[in-house]
Amino acid sequence: MTPILRPAIRADLDALVELEEVSFDSDWFSRRQLSHLILRANARTLVVIQPDEETTSPLQSSSMAADSSNVMAALWPTGSIEQDDATPLRSVLGYGTLLFRRNSQRARLYSFCLHPDARGRGLAQQLLSALECLACEQGCQQLDLEVHTGNAPAIALYERHGFAKYGRLTDYYADGASAWKMRKTLTALVDANAV
């Protein structure tokens, strides 16, 4: 079945904690931290979930999916975007969290994670594109992130999406590893969405 993209809900917490633990060797978020990210007003978290096979009826139409001009609806198959908080917990394949600052046109990709078994299916590219579009919808013109200097697949993904390195943070992670600071200008996306 086609994976579904939707905003994270409190019911996703157990799956998100497990996803963090299987995806990272260290520096993973606790349940409390993940809960805070899902519920706080200046953060937005999207999850990619794999529907249960018994789910055969079409998904509830949401305002997001109904609006064909919505950029997230354009990135995911028709009916695959859901915002229903009553959705039962399903297998979480990945998630991404954006942080926003009041009166700022800059967003930060604070966390981005895809289950090891879900990699190689194009989901990371689609999730990252949806997060970029979400930042644009919030009026942001720039997206920043930090990535482990030894995480070559993630660095390659970000570079394919137009991010560029602009600095290095030494001793950034718990294991003493450094991080690349990367940035992307979203102006082109904002302009394209305005047409």
Report on the architecture of this protein.
The protein has one domain: Aminopeptidase. It is built from seven helices and seven strands, in the order E-H-H-E-H-H-E-E-H-E-H-E-E-H. It has a seven-stranded mixed sheet with strand order 1-2-3-4-5-7-6, sandwiched between helices. Helix 5 crosses helix 7. The longest helix has 15 residues. The chain is globular and about 40 Å long. The termini are far apart.
What descriptors fit this protein?
7 strands, globular, 7-stranded mixed β-sheet, alpha+beta, 26% strand
In short:
With 195 residues, the protein is an alpha+beta fold.
Number of domains: 1
Q: What's the helix count?
A: 7
Outline, from the CA principal axes? globular
Which value, in Å, is the CA radius of gyration?
16 Å
The biggest beta sheet is recorded as: 7 strands, mixed
**What is the CA-CA span between the terminal residues?**
33 Å
CATH architecture: 3-Layer(aba) Sandwich
Report the order of strands and helices. Answer: EHHEHHEEHEHEEH
CATH class call: Alpha Beta
Percent strand:
25-35%
Tell me the structural class: alpha+beta
Helix percent band: 25-40%
Total strand segments: 7
Mean pLDDT comes to: 77
Low-confidence stretches: 54-89
